[in-house]
Structures are given as C-alpha cells and as structure tokens.
Amino acid sequence: MRFDCDMICDLLPLYIDGACSKVSEEAVEEHLAQCESCSGIYNDMKRSEKLIDAEFKKERDEVLVRQAKYFKRRSVLAGSIIGGIFAIPILVCLIVNLATGAGLTWFFIVLTAMFIPASLTVVPLMIPENKALCTLGAFTASLLTLLGVCCIYSGGSWLFTAASSILFGLSVVFMPFVSNARPVAARIGDHKALLTLGACTLTFILMMVCIGIRSDSPDFFRYTMAFSLPVFAYIWGMFALITLPKWNGMLKAAACVLLSAVFGCFSETFVILLLGRGIRLPEFGFGSLDLESVEGSMRWAALFLGIVLSAIFTMVGLRKTNKNSK
After folding, report:
1. DSSP 161
2. In whole angstroms, what is the distance from residue 53 CA to residue 268 CA?
3. Which whole-number Å values give the CA distances from 225 to 154, 168, 210, 239, 251, in the listed order?
4. 245 close to 251: Cβ distance less than 8 angstroms
5. Is the dihedral of CA 302, 303, 309, 310 positive or negative?
6. pLDDT per residue over 154-183, tens digit each?
C-alpha cells in the first residue's frame, strides 16, 4: 500500500463530507480498496453519520412541530381575543334593544356587520391553511349576509341587484388570485384564465339580469345586449387567439392587433346593428372639423395602422416559422 493508514484515517472525515481534494479522494478510495481495517473504520463512520443525521432530523422535526403548535395556540388566542372585542358592540346593542323594548331591530344588523371585520382578522388567525382563500370567502359571505339583513329590515327588494353587483366586482378583482390558490389550481390545472374570464362573464350577466328585472325600461335588455355583446366578443376573441392557436408569438400578436383594430373601428357599428338600426360605418373625411367626422377618420386611420402592423407581424411570424421548420 502506498499510503499510511493513519494518514487515510485523518482524511476519512473530509472524504465522507466531500470536502477533500480530488487527489486526496482518489488516494482514500485506492487505500480503502486494499485495506480491510480502514474500510471497517470507514463503514463505522458512515453508519455513525447516518445515525447522527437521523437523530438530527428527528429533533429538527420535533422542534418544528412544537413551534407550529405554539404559533397555532397564539393565533387561536389572538383570534379569540379579537372575537371577544367584536362581541362587545353586539352585546351592547342587544341590551339596549331589550331595555328600550325595541325588540331585536338593530341587533341582527350590528351582528352581521361585525362579521365583516371578523372575517378579515379572526379568520386568518384561526385557519391554518389557505388563509387568503378562506378570508376572501368569509368576507364575501359576511358582506352578502349583511346586505340580506339590511334588505329584510328596510323592506326593500334590492338584495339580488346589490349582491350580484358585488359578486361581479369581487370577481373582476379577486378571481385571478382565487384561480391561483393552491386547492383551486390543483383542480383546474391549466384552465386558470378560462375560469377567471368565465366567472367574470357569468357574474356580469347575472348582474345585468338582476338590474333588468328591477328596471322600468322595456328596452333595457336590448340596449344591454347591444353594448355588452361586442365588448365580450372582443375579450373572448382575444382570449381565444392568445390561448388556443399553436402559433408563434408574432402570429398571435398579428391576430390580436388586427382584432383590436377592427373592434376599435367598428364597435359603434356593431352596437347600431344589434339595436336593429341598420349598418352605419364611421365617417371618413379629414377635411371637415365636425367632431363626428374627425372621430370617424381617426377610427379608419387606426384600422389602417392596425392592418399594416398586423401584416408586418405576420410576415415576421411566417419567416420565423419557416426558419424553425428547416
């Protein structure tokens, strides 16, 4: 053997940790292949290291579990204290209502009103996982409950109109975050954008139906459809162009620019057509200072510019596609 056993034993800790040089590593491996005594020492050190690692991992997990339980108890305690604070105005309102003989007129309104701040403070403290999603759900439910109680006590019939409007607003703002939440994303997979856009569209339709039912105008739904349908057709068209075709980025950009130019130029034409008033194209004539003529000319100019940009993007995209195919 070329190497002394004492020298190899001094290098074994570094070799096991992977901290020695390439030359030292080769020397240790060569010596272990020839020396049973050093090989036995090496095996004992490896077993000891595994036992130490297992014990360290066990202690680490125990510490993490204890810390998690500690913070959970603190969160529950904080949530309980905050919940008790919110219970004070509820209790005061109950006592005042009963003492004045007014019944429980304001009690339920105050009770449901306290649900809103509780949903934003107590729920995140009490729920261990998916805090944001649960908080949003609790806030929405508490807000709708407050609206329902107020509607009942005021004798109104506006609940569905207000509730549908709130649901639409919350969908527009928070649906992108909801679709990315872990439990939701695990179920819908790659359809996050579809879920977000679909939820916004459905809540908008629900809102318009609820408003239309209470509206005194007989043409409400006709005007709503005429003004809303082109916008949603444009939005869903953009979504389809971006997500569905297996084109490269330039071809998708060309299609989106062209669709935007067409919508920008003929949006008013589509509305007039859906209202059943025939076809009226934008006016064209830069020589006139009339506001309608200037606006129409700008629409045609934007359409022409969109067509030019779309053609440029298309040529670049086709060239890129041909280059990749070769």
Report:
1. H
2. 72
3. 32, 17, 14, 20, 31
4. yes
5. positive
6. 888 889 999 999 999 999 999 989 998 888
